[in-house]
Write a structure and sequence with these properties.
single chain; 187 residues; alpha/beta; 6-stranded mixed sheet; 8 strands
């Protein structure tokens, strides 16, 4: 387990000139907010796993079966260690279509954030892995505030799928750092 201060020291001066950070965790735990915070401190590029969701008709019941793994590999993971900018297509889940392309200009820190970021086949590409946890009551409160009427879909569909994924792949134990948003500490 890496201490929180050691993370910031490592991110200041990555050993190989660039660090790739994977941030996974429960929905509404603060993954996107934490990524934006890191980006405000360190020269960073952020890749959102949500941009790699599959259209509903192509999603599978398998764990992580709603992520386009092949596209994530070819458009992002295979380009991470190159110094050249690259682009990836952004899938818009709400409208079920590709909306645009996002340019990633690799900086000292590349952050991959979102649920399913720590799928086993992605892990070898990361230098540091973070799991973000949240108290279920705070999670519920945040989802209702953030999603409104759509929050029920999270409670009925997305959270059970995520919990199954976390339990099957032992995401918390895979991580180098666990951030517990509700307690404000790392374990």
């Amino acid at each position: 387990m890496i201490a929180y201060k050691s993370l910031f020291n490592f991110l200041k001066e990555p050993e190989n000139g660039r660090a790739v950070l994977g941030i996974d965790g429960r929905c509404a735990s603060g993954k996107t907010t934490f990524s934006a915070h890191l980006e405000s401190i360190f020269p960073s590029s952020i890749v959102h796993i949500d941009d790699f969701f599959l259209p509903h008709n192509l999603q599978k019941d398998a764990l992580g079966g709603n992520i386009d793994r092949e596209r994530f590999f070819s458009e992002v993971l295979l380009n991470l260690r190159n110094d050249a900018p690259f682009f990836y297509s952004v899938f818009d889940c709400r409208f079920q279509r590709f909306s645009d392309k996002r340019k990633i200009d690799p900086k000292n820190l590349v952050i991959i954030e979102g649920v399913y970021s720590l799928l086993p086949e992605f892990i070898p590409y990361y230098d540091i892995k973070i799991f973000m946890d949240i108290d279920p009551n705070l999670q519920k409160k945040r989802l209702i505030s953030r999603e409104g009427a759509r929050a029920d879909m999270f409670f009925k569909k997305w959270i059970p799928l995520e919990e199954s994924y976390f339990n099957t792949f032992n995401s918390r134990k895979t991580a180098d750092i666990i951030l517990s948003e509700y307690a404000g500490i790392n374990e």
